[in-house]
Amino acid sequence: MNSPWWMRFGQGLLIGLGAVLPGISGGVLCMVFGIYQPVMELLANPRLLFSRPALWKPLLPVFFGGVCGFLGVARVLSVLLDKYPAPSVCLFAGLILGMIPGLLRDAGSRGSHPRDWTCLWAAFIVTILLLTGLQLARITIVPNWFWYFFCGICAALSIIAPGLSFSTLLMPLGLYVPFLAGLSSFQAGTILPSVLGALLTVILLSRVVNHLFETKYSLAMHAMTGLVLAATLVIIPFGQMSLIALLFLAGGILAGYEMDRYNARFAV
């Protein structure tokens, strides 16, 4: 990760946005920006903070950018999503689609096998079925301590499992709005159980994901690419597609592709 600090800060801004915007996963953006594996490595083994500063120091601009994106820029973009939902989502989806070739390049950087591509398409199909099923479900739940604990699990999964947006998981259950409202008003009954759920999920799953990258890199990267592709296609509003939205989608793809080409010049 030798890209300039301002680029890493900008990547953090987008990751912060993806963490709160409906249908978008912060983990997807970690994948396309090439920082997913070091993040999982740190989560799986926090002692690396002391023994390998070269691993986490390049992530500092990403972290600060993520905080700024989550707290500040996300509000601005949420207004755009309210007023111009289809073009805004198409632009964001296009940025991700434009970086898919870079993900495939990284996935095959250590060699590939036909089973890796089988895993990619299996992950793609399962993710499509899961996310479309959640979109079609219409369930309402009264939020309580247990369900906010569940919200924390979903928030952690949106980082650990790229393609699973916590908003996509919570919206069909009627938990997305009360969860964000509780967080924004600093309600202890929302924050404490959700933080506990997120921490337990990170502790239990990050080690599994990190082990997969260490032992089955190509297989894991192809599977994650399938998740990213499926999750991105699901959020595109094909039913509301207009010429403007289509232009934003094409512009996003072109911008994402150029960003990936530029970033590849600095990647190690």
Total number of beta strands: 0
The low-confidence runs, each spanning 5 or more residues with pLDDT under 50, are none
| Computed CA radius of gyration, to the nearest angstrom | 18 Å
Strand portion: under 5%
Going by helix content, strand content and strand pairing, the class is: mainly alpha
Order of helices and strands: HHHHHHHHHHHHHHH
Shape: globular
Largest sheet: none
Task: Report the average pLDDT across residues.
Answer: 78
Helix content: over 70%
- N-to-C CA distance: 6 Å
Helical stretch count? 15
Description:
By secondary structure, the chain is an all-alpha fold. The chain has helices at 5-20, 26-32, 36-44, 48-51, 53-56, 60-83, 85-98, 100-107, 114-136, 145-160, 166-170, 176-184, 188-215, 217-235, 243-264.
Defining traits:
mainly alpha, single chain, 78% helix, 268 residues
Could you outline the blueprint of secondary structure elements for this entry?
Layout: H1 5-20, H2 26-32, H3 36-44, H4 48-51, H5 53-56, H6 60-83, H7 85-98, H8 100-107, H9 114-136, H10 145-160, H11 166-170, H12 176-184, H13 188-215, H14 217-235, H15 243-264
Helix pairs in contact: 1-2, 1-6, 2-10, 3-13, 6-7, 7-14, 7-15, 8-14, 9-14, 10-13, 13-14
